[in-house]
Amino acid sequence: MVEVQLKGLLPPDMDPATMPTIDVTAPPQPRPQPDYPPFEVRNARPSADDCRSEAERFAEDGFVLLRHSTRVRDWDSDVASIYLPEIEAILRDRLFPGRRIEVQQRAPVLRRGRGTNEPYAQGVHSDGPLTPEHYLQNVVAFAGPDAERWWKAQYERPEVSGFVNVDFWRTTNMSGPLRHMPLALCRPASLDQADIVPTAMVGIAPEQRETRHLVLRYNASQDWAYFPEMEVEDLLAFKLCEFWKDMPHAPPQNVFHTAFEHPDSPADAEHRQSCEHRVGVLILRD
User: Which residue among 1, 79, 232, 258 is least packed, with the fewest CB closer than 10 Å?
Assistant: First the structure.
């Protein structure tokens, strides 16, 4: 366990109705930094008495660390031919065993940190929204109206029970365990729904199209965790959002997350390079 001051949390008394649209391309505006107590971010590696399967931990906690040695050697050229089939096999065999699913994924992956053009995301957030309608808005913003019509037709089929958007996150091209800018994740069951604040963003999708995401108010009861010293054979899977047709008011399963500065990180720690791959999974009725 480590004490960490997580960035980007909203004040506990903030009115969600006053949340403005966020323009990520605009120059950052100076604002006073809230003085919240640090969280005790626990070690999420399973203890000896945790008898749950990988699928059970994923379903109950919203995230799970998988051991997976990928055959990818080039994260630009090998993703479509190697990584996508590996991920589909993991979804079918390890995260949703025995379930009828359809997998929606495409290359490339999003790469962050050392040697890439993407910075570390150092603010608590959820990339997924709360409703299928807002997810559909993101589809059209990123991929256009044809993709919107396709996804809506797939999701609305009677045999489809629900949808889970999964983020697969791992280090890439690193010589040793991750000690720089690890990822903290919040267990969805520990959230007060009133603290989840929907927000619109521009500057992520092409042509300043508006997309829908979530931010979070500070609450001391939130359960934050991380996986110390992840290696290149470690693959973290966590839920970005989850919708069920027969349970439209089920508690949100979005896993809020953020990169954080580990207080015990050595000054000469190898800077993180990582990738994330977001995959849609349609859950079919049995």
Answer: 1
Q: Is 165 a domain residue?
A: yes
How would DSSP label each residue in 127-145?
SS-SSHHHHHHHHHHHH-H
Query: Going residue by residue through the chain (286 aa), what tens digit of pLDDT does each one get?
Result: 999 999 999 999 999 999 999 998 888 766 666 778 999 999 999 987 899 999 999 999 999 999 999 999 999 999 999 999 999 999 999 999 999 999 999 999 999 999 998 999 999 999 999 999 999 999 999 999 999 999 999 999 999 999 999 999 999 999 999 999 999 999 999 999 999 999 999 999 999 999 999 999 999 999 999 999 999 999 999 999 999 999 999 999 999 999 999 999 999 999 999 999 999 999 999 8
Looking at the structure of the chain, the number of domains it has is: 1
Q: Give me the domain span that covers residue 208.
A: 61-284
Whether 34 maps to a domain, the answer reads no
pTM above 0.90, yes or no: yes
Residues with Cβ within 8 Å of 247's Cβ and at least 6 positions away in sequence, in order, are none
3-class DSSP assignment, residue 71: coil
With respect to residue 65, please indicate whether it lies within any of the assigned structural domains: yes
